[in-house]
Amino acid sequence: SKAEMRHTCRGTINLATANITVEDSCNFIISNGGAQTYHLKASSEVERQRWVTALELAKAKAVKMLEESDDSGDESVSQTDKTELQSTLRTLSSKVEDLSTCNDLIAKHGTALQRSLSELEALRLPADSTEKIKQVNERATLFRITSNAMINACRDFLMLAQTHSKKWQKSLQHERDQRIRLEETLEQLAKQHNHLERAFRGATVLPASAPGTAGSNKDPCCPAKGDLSDEDDDNEFFDAPEIITMPESMGHKRTGSNISGTSSDISLDEQYKHQVEDTKKEKRTRIPYKPNYSLNLWSIMKNCIGKELSKIPMPVNFNEPLSMLQRLTEDLEYHELLDRAAKCESSLEQLCYVAAFTVSSYSTTVFRTSKPFNPLLGETFELDRLEENGYRSLCEQVSHHPPAAAHHADSKHGWTLRQEIKITSKFRGKYLSIMPLGTIHCVFHSSGHHYTWKKVTTTVHNIIVGKLWIDQSGEIEIVNHKTGDKCNLKFVPYSYFSRDVARKVTGEVMDPSGKVHFVLLGTWDEKMDCYKVTMGAGDNGGEGRQRAHEAEDSRVLLWKRNPLPKHAENMYYFSELALTLNAPESGTAPTDSRRRPDQRLMENGRWDEANAEKQKLEEKQRTSRKRREAEAARATEDGTPYDPYKPLWFERRKDPVTQELEHVYKGGYWESKDKQDWSLCPDIF
């Protein structure tokens, strides 16, 4: 394209600055005086001379073009811009002329004033009057010098504006053209890609009666390892008009208005009460299927490049019907790994299970390309599984900008897990990076072993064109602060050219001296194995570890992913636990995510109403924030004490182990639930 002409390819020499030298009868050299040099050989002296002459002529032309573009590079400036520029320059010139006229007048009147003052000085006046007149004379001179300096500065400014305006205008126009060209190219690419995918699906679709199709043993919920093409079509974003339509046949028929959250016969509150039926006894195994909405993704995302994702107002079309607090609670899906770790007598074996637990928290992300809802400030989520699984968990959104959630889980099997996670994310155009900041703590009650680790970076690829897919990359160091044992886990980023298994995770469990006792191997979306390292005589390194891989008899399966529920592809690829998280429950706090109206509407397939409700909630939150800021400003002015926002169930403390300031559970939630006393809860929904 024309845009590429401005950028050189690797190995290019700009003719305008090239050095062309003849080496001998057939050889000559072209170089740019440094990085790039070409030695060229012609078949005869005549041919060499023809080439050198042609290159010299081309060089002269390039130099001339460069000078012209520097001097009068207005070709790309439109007629409208030229007129606007000339008008601005004319206005500037007239203003400077006005100033010049003022200067002449000041000079004229100043001279007259000084003459009058000199005449006054010559008169016989009292001594103090003469002194005063001298002072006035000096001030008049200073005033004239200052006004002259101002006029000169204005003239210099005008000259500079005239000199540089052409270059500025040209640069600005070039940037505009580049942006328009990029938008057009991307839109064209998205359309072509969509057209190709549809054509491909149309060409490869089998007739319903084809033999073997009904009895296919391939599970649609579990695609082949690393095969991205098997992922569900619901994750595809079609290039479509801004207007979103929903087929009537989806089974979520609307009644009445599309805007009002209470348009149906039963209000949301009544629906919520109606749905709370024996949720403790029987967990739900399905949710309403995801509607097949179409959306022009590029129309929303093109203005978001380089921005923080939490600050971009996104429609629910990109979400899944769970909040970030519920997503954080999903870390406990494989809680039995911590139950098993609590029973371990060896701290190194215990560390193996803790490492498997850290990896297991990513298993739910492999197909989950939708974004969870950003929790509102003060929003909470509880999960009470004390009877069934022996643990209960509480999350609270403790900060809105930057978004931060605190999480605390206790188990009667002898462990406590707590974390405060701040999510920072950047949209880079082609991919989205999500960086969770914060430390995760796991404490085992009987042994007092205290483990800490941090999360790795999650990347969502193919944001604009193609099938969305997720990758995890980075390293995790798990430390036992009581014994000094460590485990280093490495999440290998996906590479198209690598022969390695996709989504691979490797790890080593070491004692405080650095000696490796266990090697971990697996993938973050499927399973983790553990091999005991048996060292040979005098062997302390790689060979011993290699033998551990070969020693199949020492292999222990630490963790294996649970299969996805049937028809998970129609239910946002939720796991069995995820399907239960938003099920209505009686007795929860009024700030609980299950009571969030936009999320409930979205889960029920009423996306238009969910979008309207989401805007209302966000506006309510903005109003609350502005009110707090105004109160803080008033308190500062009056000098009165002001209490900043404080979370309800967590308080900020310095952690004695990591020395970081963290929100730690201060207690009181489960007691308030027993009494059903929620008087302290803010009204956020």
From TrEMBL:
It comes from the Eukaryota. It is a peripheral membrane protein. GO terms for cellular component: cytosol; perinuclear endoplasmic reticulum; plasma membrane. Keywords: Coiled coil, Lipid transport, Lipid-binding, Membrane, Phosphoprotein, Transport. Residues 592-637 have a biased composition (Basic and acidic residues). Residues 1-60 form the PH domain. GO terms for biological process: lipid transport. It is found in: Membrane. Pfam families: Oxysterol_BP. One of its GO terms (molecular function) is sterol binding. SUPFAM superfamilies: Oxysterol-binding protein-like (SSF144000), PH domain-like (SSF50729). Residues 172-199 form a coiled coil. The keyword Cytoplasm does not apply. Residues 583-648 are annotated as: Disordered. Belongs to the OSBP family. PANTHER family: OXYSTEROL-BINDING PROTEIN 1 (PTHR10972:SF205), OXYSTEROL-BINDING PROTEIN-RELATED (PTHR10972). This is Oxysterol-binding protein.
